[in-house]
Structure formats: structure tokens, C-alpha cells
Amino acid sequence: MEQYKIKSSEFVRPGAVRTVHLKDGRTFKKVVDKSIIRKNHNSGDRSFVQIFFAVVTLWIGVDFFLFVSGLQHGIATYRPPSVEGFLPISSLMSLRYFLLTGIVRRIHPAGFFILVAAIVISATMKKGFCSWICPVGLVSESLHELGAKLFKRNFTLPRFIDVPLRSLKYVLLAFFLVSISMLSVTELGRFLGSDYNKMADVKLYLFFEHISTFSLLVIGALILLSLFYKNFWCRFACPYGALLGVTGLLSPLKVHRIKETCIDCGKCADVCPSALPVDKLDAVNSAECTGCYSCVEVCPIKDTLKFSVTPHLKGLSQRQYAFILLTIYFGIIGLAVGLGYWRNSIPGSEYLSLFKNIRSISHSF
Ligand code: SF4
Ligand code: SF4
């Protein structure tokens, strides 16, 4: 028979969870009231939103492919503005230009607004852009899930490698931020209006169309590493994610753990794609938290992990989180469209003329 004594003062909810002290000094949490055990865990809302954005991204990709094919045949067709979401450096320079002058530059304004939306989301609800909207995040996540199926597990790097490697994305971010902050308004304006910036998206497309063996090897290595290690690209190398992580530190919403009802099962830490020790924290303040809800969804005890402003408030459900995130994202984009700032000001004739000499266009810095 199990031998233990129970201190009645340690009941956290009468009859719900209590700490059991074994005679050898060890303790464990015992769920007495089975009604606090959650049954239905995964709502699937995040997967739905991720797939929606993946389809939109594919659609944008096809439109952009047709646009560049048109340029190759001397025709300027529709160019999807959202493709500018793949020009983060140009967008960051536009953001700095805006902060210094109050002016939104009309070259790639959609990229600027997407960046602003991502930053506002991070500053209010952690870096949800990465785990709900970014298609690279979805690919990265799918790869480590595939890896877990193939190898029956994901691997973790030893801490002495993981920590410096995780700093890499912040070092890259610091490099870009310092470089951009050293430019004067005139220099920023000159770059944003340059032929190089105007054609940056087309050049990016051509880079992938004529991809070098070396670049293919790098991408292949990243894919392979992503199979073994959770979110390899996002965790170690993405400076965009690093920026959102830093702004995410401002977020009043975060994951809170109610330690009195936590039964220390460790499931939350196991599923965390950012490898955070959720089961040991009172609140997840880390810049690495992507608001993915994996921990909240897997926790077997009701209201023990919650995404909220304080631990005492009711947590947001995954659906409510999605609603706020999408409202911010489409609200900012809708504002840009409504004010006539979504599409860039480059006429088709200029695209055709610049495309003729695209190989000779290079940046001036
Ligand atoms: S599992 Fe939880 S702690 Fe980890 S990234 Fe997702 S929301 Fe943040
Ligand atoms: S999933 Fe995490 S928070 Fe929930 S009971 Fe287990 S250890 Fe505690």
C-alpha cells in the first residue's frame, strides 16, 4: 500500500490537486478531483491559420512568377504587393525612414506595413507572427515534426552550443540595426529610391531561378538540420524572428503557469518548439516564445497554463488569440489599402526598362 501523509494546508483547490509527501522525503502532485483534467486538447485553430497563410503565399508566388515571366517577355502584368514581405531589410530601412521623417516611402510600402503589423503583434502578444503567419515558420515546424516521425524524436544541442548558436540571430539583427542606424536620412532615401531597391524582389526571384550549387547546399543543410532540431532556422538564424522576439519582450500577454495546480508532468516543456522550460517557470518572459499555444493545449490540467496578462485573469483561448492577431494584421493592411499606400509607385514601363539591365543593377553601399 502507498505510504504517504498529506498536509491539508497544501490543498490548492479543495479536493482538486494536493501534494503528497513520501516517507523518503520525495513529493509528488496527486489529482484528486478528476474533473480538472482536460480531455479535448488541440483546437487546430493555429494549423488552420497557418494553412490559410501558406495558400495565400503560394498564390502570391504564382502571381509573382507570372509577373517576372511577363517582364522576361516584355510585358508588365500584375505584381502582387505582398511579395514585399520577403524584403525585410528594405522594409526595416523604410521603417527607420518613417521614424525619422514621418513619411512612408512609396517603393515597397507593403513590406513596410507587413513589418509594422508583425512588430505590433509581437509587442502585444509575443512573436505570434512566426508561429501563425510566417510560411517559413510553418515549413520549419513541419520539418521537425517529420523528423520526429522518422527518427522517433527530435534532438537537442548541448547547452554550451545551443546558447551561443541562439545568439547568432541576435548578432545578425544587431548588424543590420547598427548598419541602418548609421545611415543619414539622405542616404536612406537614396537607397530606398535606388534602382537596386526597386528591383530587389525581382533580383531575389532570379537568385532562386539561377540558384548556385553552394546556395542549394546551404538550403539542403538547413532542411536536414531542421529534421533533427526543432525550428532550426527560426531558433538560430532568422534575424526577422530575432527582431520580433525582442519586441515580444514588451508583450503584456504571455504564458502563465499556475504552479499550485501544475502536476509537474513536463509535457509543456516537451512540446515547446522553442525548447523553453515552461514547466519550471511562473511566466514565460523569454524572447523565444512564439505564442504557439502548444504548451497551453497539451497541459492536462484545466487553467494551469494560460495565455493572459496576469495569472489571475482568465486566459485567452487559441481562437480568441487568433482573432486578435488577425484583427491587428488585417487591420494594419486594410489601413494601408484604404489610405492608398499598399501598392508601390513603380510604373510597369519603369519595371520593363529596369529589367533590361537587371544584371548590371547593384546596390550602392
Ligand atoms: S510552447 Fe508555449 S512557451 Fe513554447 S513557444 Fe509555444 S506558447 Fe511559447
Ligand atoms: S503541462 Fe506543464 S504546466 Fe501543465 S501540468 Fe504538466 S508540467 Fe504543469
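^ iron/sulfur cluster complex. The longest strand covers residues 17-22. Residues 1-12 have pLDDT under 50 and may be disordered.
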